[in-house]
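Budget justification aside, the reviewers requested a transparent look at the raw inputs and outputs of the sequence design task funded under Objective 1. We therefore reproduce one unedited record. The lines immediately below are the structure tokens for a 213-residue chain.
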């Protein structure tokens, strides 16, 4: 009983920063036939926030309303100021194929005069991303296609800068998930369904818990 209480107290001290991607300096996000990334990111963020609070975590969001515009460097700043144990960035993809993918910074990048993240953040993010992806994949097995664990370099912006902007400015472990390929009808239908939406939220919840364990 004492071990359970101590474990709960330690967990309650951990902070998770949820970043519902978009709108930002790169736009409003992608669109499906019926749904928008902007709306889905926000809905998943709010549902995930509730679940993680129930689990005993302190949760910080990078914006206060669905349509609030926040620059990517400021999203990272909010996570930094909260001293988050993990910054989880939610997105939906526009690409060929189907499924989810997890990204993390594997090297320093540069945007303007800013260079980052640090070697320490890269190391911790790498470890967190592996644990996050593993737990997420197990949770979604047979429900949603796994496109694997990838680095920022495998994104268009990351390939140019060396890392995503949010990663460059981050001083805390950071992981990004492309939850679905929203331009794929099957994926859009999956996240639009109650069962698919719940499965994604529960999968991300399991991933976060594994990443900060």
């Amino acid at each position: 009983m004492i071990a359970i209480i101590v474990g709960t107290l330690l967990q309650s001290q951990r902070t998770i920063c949820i970043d519902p991607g978009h709108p930002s300096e790169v736009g409003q996000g992608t669109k499906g036939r019926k749904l928008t990334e902007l709306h889905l990111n926000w809905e998943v963020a709010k549902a995930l926030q509730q679940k993680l609070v129930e689990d005993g975590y302190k949760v910080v969001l990078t914006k206060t309303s669905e349509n609030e515009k926040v620059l990517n460097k400021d999203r990272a700043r909010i996570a930094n100021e909260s001293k988050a144990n993990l910054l989880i960035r939610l997105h939906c993809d526009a690409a060929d194929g189907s499924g989810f993918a997890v990204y993390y910074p594997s090297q320093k990048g540069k945007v303007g005069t800013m260079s980052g993240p640090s070697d320490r953040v890269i190391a911790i993010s790498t470890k967190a991303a592996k644990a996050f992806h593993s737990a997420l994949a197990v949770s979604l097995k047979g429900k949603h296609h796994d496109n694997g664990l990838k680095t920022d370099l495998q994104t268009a912006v990351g390939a140019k800068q060396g890392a995503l902007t949010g990663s460059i400015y981050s001083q805390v472990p950071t992981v990004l998930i492309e939850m679905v390929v929203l331009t794929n009808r099957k994926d859009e239908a999956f996240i639009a369904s109650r069962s698919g939406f719940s499965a994604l939220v529960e999968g991300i919840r399991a991933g976060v818990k594994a990443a900060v364990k």
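Residues 119-140 form the longest helix (22 residues). The first strand starts at residue 15 and ends at 20. Computational costs for records of this kind are itemized in the attached budget.
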